[in-house]
Specification:
The structure is a single chain. By secondary structure, this protein is of the alpha+beta class. It has eight helices and 17 strands. Strand 10 and strand 11 form a beta hairpin. Helix 1 runs parallel beside helix 8. It is globular and about 60 Å long. The N and C termini lie close together (9 Å).
Length: 300
C-alpha cells in the first residue's frame, strides 16, 4: 500500500512556497527543489484527500517530456535522481524519493502559457457565448471537442492560491512581459505542444490542451520550467473513444471535475473525496503514463 504524502517536511531546507500540488524549497544560491506531493486540486481548490502515488507519476511524466522536448527549448532540470542531489536533500529520501526535481533557479515569467488544439472547457463555453476564445474570433459552426483550425496560444495570468487564473488576450501578455519575450513564448509554446501532440497521437492519446510555464536564466535564455504535459496541466483524451460534439472521456483531472459537478460542489470549500474517486483518478494517471512511455511508473 502506497502512503500518500499530503505535505513534505524538510526543516533543513528553506521552504519558499507551497502550491496546489508542489512544495518548493531553496537548496542553495543556484538551485531549488520541486517536490510533487499527492495533493489534488480542482477549480483552484485543494481537496482534503490526497491521491497516493500521484506526485511520483507527475514527476516521472515531467521527466519524460523534459527529455523529449529538449530539442525545442532548454529546461531547468538538473537531476531527478536523489543520489545526485546534495546531502541536505538526501537526508529526506523517505519523503522525496521519486517525487522530487532539483532545478536551476530562474526568473519565473508571470504568465501561464496555455495552448489549445481542440475546443473544450472554458474555451468552448466562451465560444458558445460569443464565438471567441480569449477574445480571439474563431470560425462559425465549431462543435464541442472539435480540432481547432490552428493551434491557439491563449495565455492567462498566474493567480495566488484562492484566486482564479484569468484568461487574457495574447496582446495583454506582451504588455506584461514585453513584446519580444511574448512572441518567443507563444512560438515556443506552440512548437512544444505540436511536437508533443503528434507524438501522443501515435500512442492513442489526444492532447486537447495544456499549460506550460517558462522562466528566464541569467543569460536571458527562455527555459521550460515547473511540470510538463502531465494529467494535472493537460487534457488527455483516448483516441479510441473520441467523438466530436460532446465532452470526452479523459486521463486527467476531468474525472474529478465531473464527480464534483455531480455533487454540486461549491467551487470554494475543500472536501474529502471517496476512496473510489481517489482510486479511479490514480488509475487514469497510471494509464496515461503507460500509454505515453510504454513503461509502468515506479511507485515504490
Amino acid at each position: 500500500m502506497i502512503e500518500a504524502l499530503f505535505e513534505s517536511n524538510c526543516p533543513d531546507l528553506k521552504l519558499v512556497a507551497r502550491g496546489k500540488v508542489r512544495d518548493l524549497y531553496e537548496v542553495d544560491a543556484e538551485s531549488l527543489l520541486f517536490v510533487a506531493t499527492d495533493r489534488i486540486s480542482a477549480y483552484d481548490v485543494i481537496m482534503k484527500s490526497a491521491v497516493a502515488g500521484k506526485g511520483k507519476i507527475l514527476t516521472q511524466i515531467s521527466q519524460f517530456w523534459f527529455s523529449f522536448l529538449e530539442p525545442v527549448v532548454q529546461n531547468h532540470l538538473i537531476t531527478a535522481n536523489i543520489d545526485e542531489m546534495p546531502q541536505v536533500v538526501q537526508q529526506y529520501r523517505d519523503q522525496l524519493q521519486g517525487r522530487s526535481l532539483l532545478v536551476k533557479k530562474v526568473e519565473v515569467l508571470p504568465i501561464e502559457a496555455i495552448v489549445r488544439g481542440y475546443i473544450t472547457g472554458s474555451g468552448w463555453k466562451e465560444y458558445e457565448k460569443q464565438g471567441t476564445v480569449c477574445d480571439m474570433a474563431l470560425p462559425e459552426g465549431l462543435r464541442e471537442s472539435q480540432k481547432l483550425p490552428r493551434v491557439l496560444f491563449t495565455p492567462s495570468t498566474k493567480a495566488e492560491y484562492g484566486d482564479h487564473d484569468e484568461n487574457i488576450h495574447p496582446d495583454k501578455c506582451a504588455e506584461i512581459i514585453g513584446e519580444e519575450r511574448a512572441k518567443e513564448m507563444a512560438r515556443v509554446a506552440e512548437e512544444l505542444y505540436s511536437k508533443a501532440a503528434e507524438y501522443a497521437l501515435g500512442k492513442g492519446i489526444i492532447i486537447a490542451d495544456t499549460k506550460f510555464e517558462f522562466g528566464v536564466d541569467k543569460q536571458g535564455n527562455l527555459m521550460l520550467i515547473d511540470e510538463v504535459l502531465t494529467p494535472d496541466s493537460s487534457r488527455f483524451w483516448p483516441t479510441a473513444s473520441y467523438k466530436v460534439g460532446r465532452g470526452q472521456e479523459s486521463y486527467d483531472k476531468q474525472y474529478l471535475r465531473d464527480y464534483l459537478t455531480s455533487i454540486d460542489f461549491d467551487m470554494h470549500t475543500p472536501i474529502d473525496l471517496p476512496p473510489t474517486v481517489l482510486d479511479n483518478t490514480l488509475k487514469k494517471y497510471i494509464e496515461a503514463y503507460v500509454k505515453l512511455t510504454g513503461n509502468r511508473p515506479e511507485l515504490g
